[in-house]
Amino acid sequence: MTVIVARGLERRFGSKRVLAGIDLDVPEGAFVVVTGPNGSGKTTLLSLCAGLLAPTKGTLDVRAERRELGYLAHEPLVYRELTALENLELYGRLYRVPERRERIGMLLERFSLWDTRHERVSTFSRGMAQRLAFCRVLLHEPRLLLLDEPYSALDAEASELVDAELRALAAERTVVVSTHDPERLAALATARLALA
Amino acid sequence: MTYLADVAALAKKDLLLELRSRDTLPAMLLFVVSTLVVFHFSLPSGSSDIAAAGLLWVAIVFTALLGLTRAFVAEREQRLMDGLVLAPCDRSAIWLAKGLSIVVFLLLAEVVALPAYALFFEPVSGQMVAGILLADLGIASVGTLLAAMAAASRARELLLPLLFLPLAIPVIVGGVGASVADDPARYLGFLGLYDLIFAILSWASFEYVVTE
Amino acid sequence: MTTAEKYVTAAYLVVLAVILLYVVIYTFKLQRLEREIAELAELAQRKKAA
Amino acid sequence: MSLRNNRLGVLALAAAALLLAGVALAFYWAPEDADQGFSQRIFYIHVSVALTAYASFGWAAWKALRLLWRRDERYDLESYTAVHVGVMFGVLTLVTGSIWARISWGVWWSWGERQLVLFLVLFLFYSAYFMLRYSTEPGPRRARMSAVYALFGVVLIPISFLAIRLAENFIHPVVFTREGPQMSGSMFFTFCVCLAGTLALAGSLYANELLGKRLDERLRDLREALA
Fold first, then answer.
1. How many helices (H) and strands (E) does chain D have?
2. Would residue C10 count as lying in a domain?
3. Which of B167, D38, D123, D221 has the greatest number of CB atoms lying within 10 Å of its CB?
4. For residue C14, which residues of chain D lie inside 8 Å, CB to CB?
5. A31-35/A16-27 β-pairing
6. Which of A49, A85, A53 shows the shortest CA–CA distance to A69?
7. pLDDT value of position D1
8. In A, which residues are within 8 Å of D137 by CB distance?
9. D66 min Cα distance to partner chain B (Å)
């Protein structure tokens, strides 16, 4: 069963055409690596798959409910004035995560944010915020993961953490990840998409 | 039931954010009182009470505008609207939660404004308070939707007043009427009608304003 | 013409004036479109020749 | 395209013919009004233009609803053009209305004239519509927001009319009002011709402008294809 089907997908911002004629098939359990220079439309493609943007032309069919979809954007999408725990508490409620407290505790532990769980995100470093974003994305155990340059602003240690996480995810989830460093994910990739 | 749970979670977040940053509420409280003081000096000495009632309403509407301009600032600056829109909850819950927090801010501002008004101008009548409560609902429901629209555009501080004021004219007419007329029933009824129609319209169209 | 007649004719003339203004604006727009089409035709020619 | 141009031509011709006939009837054929005399003849154009403005705003809201319902970008342009035509006729209503106030009561503006005040509110409202469009990026998001705003506009018309009527008895004591003049048969006929003329005019301006905007779009696609 394919999770994402795109035919002749195009997206235009005003008069500038960012994506044109994209055909894509992402089967269940695939690990698709999207590459391309800045401005080639990687983020636009992921936003389209996440349902945040509507295609200007062509068709895009994403067979995953919002409940089954996790989207890691450039921004962590967490409230800076709230603490890590409060942010995950909010998303946990909105995504109706069962045993919310245990799940949040486990994720904070795994991404070594447990000690700073009561601190505001505004005090977090870029790397810590990115790790919190990962917690947000994985909180509701989504079937489909859309990760927009997950390694950006991460130090070596955090990058290894992400590597381990992606290896675990690749096994049982469908993943579409955009990156500037395709070699790092070469082992896991089942398909590649190079945007001009 | 989960719809109300979503609204509760989102409203809690909005109030918590305000408690943490403490920038919208204090500004609204100070703004409404200073506006009344400015009006005192701008009025000819023998200002009739009708003018005074009108000025209270202008102060309330512009204080609401101040609060509404701040309504989606977090969602916009950190692109958090994407995070909320991605959640499986009904998007109108975002509108209802934000609207409720705006009503709370307005009520708190009015708790300060009405005694000041009674002090500066003339006593506050029961019918005026009823008018204010009904108007707050209308202002919050339409204002929240317009604030979301303005948040998605470039010149949002400029745009929101332009979008909001024409729609606020009926609220001002109903409000001032309720405050001043000898039989306020007609005006309170009109405010109720406005609230009902525009709350439903805003509730139904919010989804189209925040998604593509 | 009484002042009333002057005003009434003025009202009707205003409507006419707005229509004429609209037509004038539209002729400018058509000229611009024509120029753009000429540009594109020439661009197409150059592309075909290349 | 050619078939449509013929229809456009026919519509424009009909508008011209009807308007000419209407003006002629209004000036020469319609009977003199008992108390207002000649100045009553402004009634025909003023009310026709006002009703046409309402029709245009209604048409814009209808297209907006279609856009929200069917997600077809085509309706955005149509709703936008209809609002543009509506605002043009709204301005004409304000101008002819204030001229009429000038003749009847010697003032260029009268808060007592409900329709005039309503068009002032609508003018403010729909000017903000253009501000909204100019300050957002073209795309599906702008289309949907404009559509929602256009829907609010058409709901605001009756609400504001009610508010203005309510406002009359305490804020602005009504000095002079005028119930719609009782129209004799021939007056009504003249009015209908004028109204048909202004509606046809609005239709042809709308279709014309829409054609222009479609050409712009196709030219842009062409330029992109050739780039």
1. 6, 0
2. no
3. B167
4. 92, 95-96, 99
5. unpaired
6. A49
7. 47
8. 13-14
9. 13
Tokens of residue A114, six digits: 């447990």
Residue C40 lies in a domain: yes
What's the whole-number average pLDDT of chain A?
92
Six-digit token string for C23: 């037509």
User: Is the minimum CB–CB distance between B9 and chain A shorter than 8 Å?
Assistant: yes
D32 touches chain A (CB under 8 A): no
| Cβ–Cβ contact D138 with A under 8 A | yes
CB B168 within 8 A of CB D163: no
Distance between CA atoms of B109 and A79, rounded to whole angstroms?
25
pTM score, whole prediction: 0.92
Question: What are the structural domains of chain A?
Answer: 29-51+65-194 (3.40.50.300)
CA distance, residue D143 to nearest chain C CA (Å): 23
Shortest CA distance from D138: residue in chain B: B153
User: pLDDT tens across D17-34, in order?
Assistant: 999 998 888 888 877 777
CB A171 within 8 A of CB A95: no
**Based on the structure, what is the number of domains in chain B?**
1
By the CB < 8 Å criterion, does A118 face chain B?
Answer: no
* Averaged pLDDT score across all residues of chain D: 87
CB contact under 8 A, B163 and D128: yes
What residues of chain A score a pLDDT lower than 70? none
Q: Spell out a b/e string for B149-171, using b for 16 or more CB atoms within 10 Å of the CB, else e.
A: bbbbbeebeebbbbbbbbbbbbb
How close, in Å, is residue D181 to chain C by CA atoms? 17
From CA B131, how far away is CA D206, in angstroms rounded? 42
* Residue pair A70/A145 in contact by the 8 Å Cβ criterion: yes
Q: Determine if residue A36 is left, alpha or beta; phi over 0 gives left, psi from -120 to 50 gives alpha, anything else beta.
A: left
How far apart CA B160 and CA B146 sit, in angstroms, is 7
Q: Which amino acid is at D172?
A: H
Among chain D residues, CA nearest to B211: D141
- Domain assignment of residue C1, yes or no: no
Tally of CA atoms within 13 A in the half-sphere of B71 that contains its CB: 39
Whether C35 is in a domain gets the answer yes
D161 touches chain B (CB under 8 A): no
First to last CA, chain A: 28
pLDDT value of residue D5:
63
Residue C4 C-alpha, separation from nearest chain D C-alpha, in angstroms: 5
Higher pLDDT, D183 or B42: B42
Distance CA B105, CA B116 (A): 17
pLDDT of residue A15: 77
Tell me whether chains B and C touch (3+ CB pairs under 8 A): no
Domain range spanning residue C48? 20-50
Residues in D closer than 8 angstroms to B165, CB to CB, are 124
- Tokens representing residue B171 in the block: 């609220």
Domain count, chain C: 1
The one-character DSSP state at B78 is T
For chain D, helix, strand, coil in percent to 5 are 80, 0, 20
User: Do B78 and A94 count as a contact with CB atoms less than 8 A apart?
Assistant: no
For residue D175, what pLDDT band results from cuts at 50, 70 and 90?
very low
Q: How far is CA B207 from the centre of its chain?
A: 20
State whether residue C25 sits within 8 Å of chain D by CB: no
| CA A25 – CA A62 distance, rounded (Å) | 10
